[in-house]
Amino acid sequence: MLKIKNLHASVEGKEILKGINLEVNPGEVHAIMGPNGSGKSTLASVIAGNEDFEVTDGTIELEGEELNELAPEERAHQGVFLSFQYPVEIPGVTVTNFMKTAINETRKARGLEEMPANEMLKKIREKSELLEIDRKFLSRSLNEGFSGGEKKRNEIFQMAMMEPKLAILDETDSGLDIDALKVVANGVNRLKTPQNATIVITHYQRLLDYIVPDHVHVLLNGKIVKSGGKELALELEEKGYDWIKQEAAV
After folding, report:
1. What 3-state DSSP class applies to 233?
2. If residue 65 lies in a helix (H) or strand (E), which one and from where to where?
3. Paired strand residues for 174
4. Which of 132, 196, 189, 135 is CA-nearest to residue 162?
5. Which UniProt keywords are present, listed alphabetically (predicted)?
C-alpha cells in the first residue's frame, strides 16, 4: 500500500527527516511513536504533500505509484487522508456541504459523475450513525466553535465519508477525554478493511488500547530506530524513551 524509501525532508533548510524507511500493507495499522520534536508530524505532512516541507531525497509510493511530485489534492484523490492535529475552522461552510464538495471533487478527478443527492444523503446518514454524530452537528460551520472532541470526531467522519486507501491520524488523541477517545477509536476500528491501511501517530499508549496496531515504530531524531508489535508501545509507556535513545546511540 505505502512504501517509503530513504526519505529525507527539511523545512527552511533544517533537516527533520533523515532517512525514513517504512512499508505498510493493506489491512494493517501502524503506530508511530516518539518524543516531541522527533519528526512524527513532519512525516505525516510530507506523505500528505504539505508544501512547507522540502523532500531532499527518497521516494514515497502508494500502490506502486510515486507521490513525490503530486500536489496535496492529487494525493487526496489517489486515496491519502490526513486527520489534522489542529483542524482549521471554516465559517460559513457546513460540515455537509464540505463533505459533498470533497467527495465530488475526488470523483471528478477519477473521471466519475457527481454522486447523486439521494446516495450522498444515505451515505451521510450511515456514517454519522456509525460515529454517533448528531444530525444538527452536520449543519454547523466546519469546526467553528467545536470542542476538541467534536473536531476530532468530525475528522473521523470525513475519513468515513472519503473512504481513503491510506488514513494518517496525526495525534488524534490529543486533548480528548476518555469517552471522546473511545468514540473516535471505535470509528477508526469500524472503518478498517482488508483493502485500506492506517497510520496512527501518537504520544500515548492509551490510544493503542482502543486502536490495536499490527506494528509500532519509534521515531527519534528523524529516523525510525526501533520497530515491534503492540507490546513495544506498552514498554514505552512503562519505561519512557531514554532506553531507546541509549540503544540508538550505541
Report:
1. helix
2. strand 65-66
3. none
4. 196
5. ATP-binding, Nucleotide-binding
Provide the residue type at 123 as one letter.
Answer: K
Distance CA 121, CA 239 (A): 48
CA distance 182 to 240: 24
> What is the rounded distance in angstroms from the CA atom of residue 211 to the CA atom of residue 219?
19
Residues 95 and 177: their CA atoms lie apart, in Å, by 23
What is the Cα gyration radius of the chain?
A: 18
The model's pLDDT over 118-153, given as tens digits with 9 standing for 90+, comes to 999 999 999 988 888 888 888 998 888 887 778 888
Task: Tell me how far apart the alpha carbons of residues 77 and 106 are, in angstroms, rounded to a whole number.
Answer: 5
Contact (Cβ atoms closer than 8 angstroms) between residue 15 and residue 222: yes
* Integer Cα distance of 70 and 68 in angstroms: 6
Residue with cell 459533498: 100
Element (H, E) at 82: strand 80-83
User: What amino acid is encoded at 131 in this protein?
Assistant: L
Minimal CA–CA distance to 14: which of 40, 35, 36, 42?
42
* Residue in this structure with the C-alpha cell 480528548, named with its chain if needed: 176
Note if the pTM is more than 0.85: yes
